[in-house]
Amino acid sequence: MPPLDVHLKSSKQRTGKEYEELHRWIDDDKLNAPEIHDISRIPENMKYVNKKWGEEAVQEFVLHVKEDMEHRLKENLQYFGLFK
Ligand SMILES: [Zn+2]
Questions:
Q1: Residues 6+ positions from 14 with CB-CB distance below 8 Å
Q2: Predicted local confidence at residue 1, as pLDDT
Q3: Which of 3, 15, 49, 74 could cross-link 61 (Cys pair, CB 3.0–4.6 Å)?
Q4: Domains of the chain by residue range
């Protein structure tokens, strides 16, 4: 997964804010991180994010999960020599 500062940087580019607390909530708690990244739980987690950090943070939450998935996909393709 991309390191925290990659998420902070892309949030900053999109919104002008880093949303550090949000990204730390998504990644830092190793026990809950898999559930927070689980696509099937996005609707439920979106409600929590909206309540805690507001509407704009919901988009940043979903994009965090998307960035992680793209990163993982790229790593897998590189592993099999299908992506440079
Ligand atoms: Zn993550």
A1: 59, 60, 63
A2: 74
A3: 49
A4: 4-79
